[in-house]
Amino acid sequence: MARELEYLDSEQVERFLEQGYIVIKHAFSLEKANEWTKELWLRLGADPNDKSTWKTLKERTHLPWKKREKVETLAPTAWAAIKDLLGGEDRINSEASSWGDSFIVNVGTEELEDCKKHVAPQDLDNWHVDGDFFVHFLDSPEQALLVIPIYSHIEPQGGGTIIAPEGIDIIAKYLASHPEGVLPTGLSFTPSTSKYTNKEEDPGYISFLREIKKCHKFVEMTGEPGDVILLHPLMLHSASKNYLRIPRVITNPPVGLKSPFVFHRENSDDYSIVERKTLRALGKDRLDFKISTDRRQITPARVLAEQKMLQEEKRLKEAATQMVS
Ligand SMILES: [Fe+2]
Question: What's the pTM?
Fold first, then answer.
């Protein structure tokens, strides 16, 4: 018998299987959202009510996390929905089940505010699949869902993430034909065994900016503080332009599994909803998928850059101490 769902109803399950995402409204309270973001502008070094102070900010700022909380207590309904989508708590990596205050703030730019011609979704320059820290396989456990908790009011054209549900089919079929695994290479994947100096020449190379041109349906992730959007891990998505310049605040915490997804379960009732969606994207009922190289973690360029920044900070601090003494 299939696992009894804790939170999702059959309509939400069908919506996830059709579109690859669902929105959990008011998964955490406005009070909680306000409490979590109360130091946000101090951390940014700007005033939310004075746009002239935003000049020092980039269009999108990624803050590191300073505090974390278990999803179970922060957003209980979202946690229940996550368990439903992934086939139960037993399958979830408990180390990846807390969220931090690593806010991603999109304040737009002055140019965008004055801009009359808005960029079409297909022409955005940030289309990607999440997970820059591991070699990707169809069944990879590292990024089992794409999760977007919302901390601000996001209106249309206000910088909400744009998704392309048809992209799940493209990426699932691509990964199914690459059991050797693929490396996240910016806005592209490159076979992990590639011998090409120029990755783009590899026949197995896939560019997300090229693939997105095959998609026709795009959805903008709008919402209110406390909403949580849960998306299939292979969803193609892009940051968008904040023409309104109402600061857009979200986080993007991963959820991981203890072991890889399985697409050839003995009993079809045991498939998780995410596994069922992947199979549907492939047009199959089951798939005996086997990887042909080892799973491995990689150190993304962003982490190397962060490490370099920390080393530089340390060096400057030491130099300053020596000058004083
Ligand atoms: Fe992303």
Answer: 0.91
